[in-house]
Design a protein that fits this description.
heterodimer; A: about 425 residues; alpha/beta; five-stranded mixed beta sheet; about 45% helix; B: about 525 residues; alpha+beta; seven-stranded mixed beta sheet; 22 strands; elongated
């Protein structure tokens, strides 16, 4: 086993959820140190660590913090715990098993960026994680770790959990801000970026759960220690949620740059007995799919995956074996994105629905051969044409699935049934 | 002032201008739906795409600011293809009900598809069905299927009327506009949402199915609904007026006007108008009635004559009639009939003012010029003690804003002789008997002149059309009342100037009476 446990070392301990259990393992020891540092020194340390946003975009965290205006205006720190993309469940584990780790990371981050109010935006379906967070926040308030004059430092920080009403696009930072403001969860035009004009039109930093939790480690052991993990451009470790046809699905923390097939074979116990790897979506359902051959060349870092035309994304690794019908799989994905498009930008609103209809025409045996090319044309014209990346998220899987597994789509159109399963859509699902 | 190059032409624009604004300056055409100069930028229709040198992706022009030296083009194949696809995305769930759509003829989707569209549609799937004929409130109907979700109407209720009735509901291609919690779209600016709807999704209950727009002509005028003086376009044909829409004027009304102002067309139409003059119970032509009234005026001593004016006429008309009364009849008993006195100074914060007259300042200006100081109490006293024997009234065009009309009519009819000039019918007025003269007047769309609005801004109005050709302006009436004759330019001696050779008179027209008579939906 090659797991490198920076974040998840104590996740197996039930008492780690509690303040006492967290403290017993060194929790909240970094906070006093951080509160004695200059905020800029923390930002510099985070910059030096090379930490990149773990929510999907991979934007350098320290640089994002540096975009905040220097005028002392009130600013907010928002933790993005919406985690709505199919296959992604890493933040959930952290909130359930190590809520204080997130809270400590948020206090340190808030101190660094000069925020006195933070929210953890959690998707509404995450009932148990919300309970865990609320319990931990209460413990932290009772212990003087949140609220006024934290640990006598003179720094105030209030933290609340906000339960979203449930929309994929609330995981996009401006959509999340709209939702937090009580509006429909719809992304906003950028510029202005949230760091300049975000929640309630004030400067706002939005970071993922995993990103904020990693800040504690960076401040505790220093940027250079953090940099020992991972690669030059993709520093540190990363949590990967592995789902699909593997022997042991679950969350795994490995250093960035770790070989994809090692994650599958060494950490996850390989494929299910008797099955062969067919394809992997390496970074959540919006990432282009890799064939088994491509997987052999893939390392789990931003650059390696970009070089293969896909992305690390949120680290949701969806594994498909040779029993998986790619037409059916894409039908599931297009249905998801058509359902979740916020309805704001025309190419996304209409395009996601159109893709879904074409896919289901094919799946239900009404497809035409030209529909395969039409899928590509529609997806091509959705890509990069909207306010947020949902349109791309819907288009990219379509383009990669159709390009890399075209024979399955053509077979389905000609025969009206799956090439892999030999059955029709109705037989597959009923 | 940054300079940029648009489609090869150098253009200098104001600091902070977006590319789409720069393109308005340069005169370059650009497809767009959601952008509206009076609303915030939504950036959702994704049609106003441009290529910017050095940027690999196309950008939207509405949310991209011009910077010094920027090189922009929207004529490349890449941009054209993106716009074509954008239009196809707009159309895939849009019903092709243009033949029965009220917006046909002035539909942005039709127009832009003809100019930029993709003529080889590839959508073979069933369209998403949405709600039809949704009653949004007292003035507006929504056909959700036609809506392209540009969100202009939603932004209007958020940003301009600040009434927040409208919102976008559901997600993806099930998204529809609607009203929050069943709240009706019911505010005095609701019909602006119809104006700014680029397709036929929002239609005016009042105008819906009354006319195809290509059967209408239009002309510019100034609203006479209140002292703001919104700039308007009047839509009419030989049957009369059908609607009023705002015209942009940065100094007066911006892009908008109120719903009350839009009703002005109703009291202009023939059905609401006085058509014949009356002199002591005898019907005659308006001019003849005015000439007839001269008899009584010339036989009344100047100090026994009173002139009552409402602030609904033009500056030039006031000048003519007051001058006539001061110089010809030697009276300065000229009275300002003020309506809604208690709400005269109120203002709704947007456009609508409590003074429901278009020309109060104009009337006051002319009265001051002629040294008129008489007050209504003087008139009441004169009528009570019999010293005022003959009263000449220039009554309101828009009677609705004169709630005390009946009371005033009763008071003024105490005079021995009552000469009443007015454009619209009124039962109580027509019921008067004895020494009463009724003279039909022209309305604001039937004459030239000047209104001075609440802020002192002078605005010229031009004649748009003629609805009642025999009716008089106040200037013409003043001449006739003074016993003079009208000098009429006679370009076509046997045909009134307002009529076309093929004109069909109202009473002879052949049309669908069912549609015409059924009223608003």
């Amino acid at each position: 086993m090659s797991e490198t446990k920076v974040l998840t070392e104590f996740y197996h301990l039930p008492e780690y959820q509690t303040l006492a259990g967290y403290k017993a393992k060194g929790g909240y020891e970094t906070l006093p140190k951080a509160l004695k540092m200059q905020p800029q020194a923390i930002i510099d340390e985070v910059k030096a660590s090379g930490l990149r946003g773990r929510g999907g975009a991979g934007f350098p965290t320290g640089m994002k913090w540096g975009f905040l205006p220097k005028n002392g205006e009130p600013r907010y720190l928002l933790c993005n715990a919406d985690e709505g993309e199919p296959g992604t469940f890493k933040d959930r584990m952290m909130m359930e098993r190590a809520p204080h780790q997130l809270i400590e990371g948020m206090i340190i981050s808030a101190f660094a960026v000069g925020s006195h109010k933070g929210y953890i935006y959690v998707r509404g379906e995450y009932v148990f994680p919300i309970e865990c967070l609320n319990k931990a926040i209460k413990e932290a308030y009772d212990a003087g770790l949140l609220g006024k004059n934290i640990l006598g430092s003179g720094f105030d920080f209030d933290l609340d959990v906000y339960r979203g009403a449930g929309a994929y696009i609330c995981g996009e930072e401006t959509g999340m801000i709209s939702s937090l403001e009580g509006l429909k969860g719809q992304p906003k035009l950028k510029p202005p970026f949230p760091a300049v004009q975000g929640y309630l039109r004030k400067p706002t930093i939005v970071n993922n759960v995993e990103t904020l939790a990693a800040v504690t480690y960076i401040v505790k052991d220093g940027a250079q220690t953090y940099r020992k993990h991972g690669t030059e451009k993709s520093a540190g470790t990363k949590l990967f949620s592995v789902s699909g046809n593997v022997a042991k699905p679950g969350n795994y923390e490995v250093p960035l740059g770790y070989p994809l097939l090692d994650l599958i074979n060494k950490e996850c116990g390989g494929m299910k007995p008797g099955r062969k790897l067919k394809a992997i979506i390496p970074g959540g359902s919006s990432a282009p799919v890799l064939t088994a051959e491509e997987c052999a060349k893939a390392n789990l870092d931003y650059e390696s995956l970009a070089g293969l035309g896909t992305m690390l994304g949120s680290g949701a690794v969806i594994v498909m074996d040779d029993s998986q019908c790619m037409v059916d799989m894409l039908g599931v994905l297009t249905h998801f994105y058509a359902h979740e498009s916020c309805g704001q930008c025309t190419p996304c609103r209409e395009g996601t629905g159109w893709l879904n209809k074409i896919l289901h025409s094919i799946l239900e045996g009404r497809g035409r051969l030209q529909d395969i090319d039409l899928l590509v044309k529609v997806a091509d014209n959705m890509k990069g044409k909207t306010i947020c990346a949902l349109s791309d998220a819907a288009a990219l899987p379509v383009l990669s699935f159709v390009t890399k597994f075209r024979d399955e789509f053509e077979f389905y159109v000609r025969e009206g049934r799956s090439k892999v399963k030999g059955t029709t859509y109705a037989e597959m699902h009923h | 002032m940054p300079k940029c190059t648009i489609n090869g032409k150098e253009v200098e624009v104001k600091e902070g201008s977006s590319i789409i604004e720069a393109m308005q300056v340069s005169g370059d055409r650009i497809a767009h739906y959601c952008w509206h100069p009076g609303l915030s930028v939504a950036g959702v229709c994704r049609l106003c795409v441009v290529e910017i040198e050095g940027n690999p992706r196309v950008q939207i022009a509405c949310n991209t600011m011009v910077t010094e030296g920027m090189k922009i083009n929207n004529t490349s194949e890449k941009v054209k293809d993106t716009v074509k696809w954008g239009l196809d995305f707009h159309l895939i769930n849009h019903p092709l009900d243009c033949p029965i759509c009220d917006q046909a003829g002035e539909c942005g989707l039709q127009d832009q598809y003809m100019e930029y569209g993709k003529y080889d549609p590839e959508m073979a799937e069933a369209k998403v069905k949405k709600h039809k004929v949704v009653d949004l409130g007292p003035t507006v109907v929504l056909d959700s299927e036609r809506c392209i979700l540009c969100s202009r109407c939603v932004r209007f209720t958020e940003e301009v009327s600040k009434t927040n009735e409208l919102g976008l509901f559901n997600r993806g291609d099930r998204t529809e506009i609607g009203t929050h919690d069943g709240m009706p779209l019911d505010n005095n600016y609701s019909l602006n949402t119809v104006d700014i709807c680029p397709v036929g999704a929002l239609t005016s209950k009042d105008f819906r199915f009354r006319q195809r727009v290509w059967y209408l002509k239009d002309g510019d005028s100034v609203c006479n609904g209140c002292s703001t003086g919104c700039n308007i376009k009047v839509y009419y044909n030989k049957e009369g007026l059908f609607r009023i829409k705002p015209v942009y004027n940065e100094k007066v009304n911006g892009h908008w006007m109120c719903d009350s102002g839009r009703n002005a067309y109703k009291f202009v139409n023939r059905e609401a108008r006085l058509l014949k003059g009356v002199a002591r119970g005898v019907e005659m032509a308006p001019g003849a009635a005015a000439k007839n009234a001269n008899e009584v005026l010339k036989n009344t001593a100047g100090d026994a004559i009173a002139l009552v004016l409402t602030a609904q006429y033009t500056l030039e008309e006031y000048e003519a009639i007051i001058k006539t009364f001061v110089e010809e009849f030697k009276t300065k008993k000229v009275f300002f009939w003020i309506n809604n006195k208690e709400t005269f100074d109120s203002f709704d914060g947007l456009l609508s003012r409590g003074d429901k007259n278009p020309n109060t300042k104009g009337l006051l200006k002319v009265m001051e010029k002629h040294g008129i100081t008489a007050t209504w109490n003087d008139l009441s006293a004169g009528l009570a003690n019999g010293s005022i024997k003959t009263v000449v009234v220039a009554g309101p065009e828009n009677q609705v804003v004169f709630p005390e009309y009946a009371e005033r009519l009763k008071e003024l009819s105490k005079a021995q002789n009552l000469i009443w000039m007015q454009s619209g019918k009124n039962e109580a007025l027509s019921a008067l008997t004895g020494n009463v003269w009724i003279i039909p007047m022209k309305t604001f769309v039937e004459k030239d002149g000047t209104f001075i609005n609440y802020s002192g801004l002078e605005q010229k109005i031009k004649k748009v059309t003629t609805v009642v050709s025999e009716a008089l302006t106040l200037t013409e009436a003043a001449l006739l009342l003074a016993g003079k004759n009208l000098a009429m330019p006679m370009t076509a001696p046997f045909m009134p100037t307002n009529q076309r050779p093929d004109q069909v008179e109202l009473e002879h027209r052949k049309k669908n009476e069912f549609v015409f008579r059924r009223g608003s939906l």
